[in-house]
């Protein structure tokens, strides 16, 4: 029998996060309860509360896990110095596709309980960090404006992007072409022009 690389506590945490993701995907965050998640994970309610302070805590950690998934998809491409404009567009369009396919989980990531700060969260991968680093790459390549910090530019881009996606998830008639247009329009404000440094 192969021994798991995770401790019993970590296995239980992963089971709860997996069960929460599946339950929220099916019935939405508001309808999901700790009892449902614990039952689906094959654990007790007490175990769930020993590992997570609340349903909100589970949601926060689920969002962090979802965001961490984007890190390996793009980190090596940023480090390889790919064209930042194309990369930013691809990152956001890939994210939009995921959001439209996973609406109940996407809303947690797009409108988190803990509002983002200008700097990405420390100590963990995040979608905000990937976008910020792609913008930094664009600044180094001379294709993005350098008169503002990459942190501020990423917050502006992500704020507008998140609002467009929240509208799409609320049933607005927004297509992937519309999302691409939003990315391009906002992106044009990030690009370095003839009169910008």
Provide the fold topology:
Blueprint: H1 8-27, H2 34-41, H3 45-51, H4 55-68, H5 71-79, H6 84-101, H7 103-110, H8 127-141, H9 150-169, H10 176-190
Helix pairs in contact: 1-2, 1-4, 2-3, 5-8, 6-7, 6-8, 6-9, 6-10, 7-9, 8-9, 9-10
Characterise this structure.
The protein contains ten helices and no strands. The chain has helices spanning 8-27, 34-41, 45-51, 55-68, 71-79, 84-101, 103-110, 127-141, 150-169, 176-190. Helix 1 crosses helix 4 (55-68) and helix 7 runs antiparallel to helix 9 (150-169). It is an all-alpha fold and 197 residues long. The protein has two domains: 8-52, Arc Repressor Mutant, subunit A, CATH 1.10.10.60; 67-190, no CATH class.
Entry summary:
By secondary structure, the protein is an all-alpha fold.
- Regions with little confidence, pLDDT below 50 for 5+ residues: none
Radius of gyration: 19 Å
Which structural class is indicated by helix and strand composition? mainly alpha
Q: List the secondary-structure elements in sequence, H or E.
A: HHHHHHHHHH
Alpha plus pi helix count: 10
Largest sheet: none
Oligomer: single chain
CA-based shape: globular
Supply database-style keywords.
10 helices, single chain, 197 residues, 2 domains, mainly alpha, Arc Repressor Mutant, subunit A, 68% helix
């Amino acid at each position: 029998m192969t021994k798991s690389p995770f401790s019993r506590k970590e296995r239980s945490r992963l089971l709860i996060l997996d069960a929460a993701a599946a339950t929220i995907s099916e019935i939405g965050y508001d309808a999901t309860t700790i009892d449902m998640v614990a039952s689906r994970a094959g654990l007790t309610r007490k175990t769930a509360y020993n590992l997570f302070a609340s349903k909100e805590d589970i949601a926060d950690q689920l969002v962090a896990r979802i965001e961490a998934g984007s890190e390996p998809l793009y980190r090596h491409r940023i480090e390889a110095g790919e064209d930042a404009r194309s990369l930013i567009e691809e990152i956001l369009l890939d994210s939009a596709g995921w959001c439209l396919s996973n609406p109940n989980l996407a809303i947690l990531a797009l409108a988190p309980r803990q509002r983002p700060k200008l700097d990405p969260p420390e100590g963990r991968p995040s979608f905000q960090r990937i976008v910020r680093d792609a913008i930094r790459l664009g600044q180094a390549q001379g294709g993005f404006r350098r008169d503002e910090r990459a942190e501020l530019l990423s917050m502006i881009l992500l704020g507008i992007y998140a609002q467009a996606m929240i509208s799409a998830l609320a049933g607005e008639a927004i297509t992937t072409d519309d999302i691409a247009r939003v990315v391009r329009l906002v992106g044009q404000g990030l690009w370095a022009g003839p009169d910008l440094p």
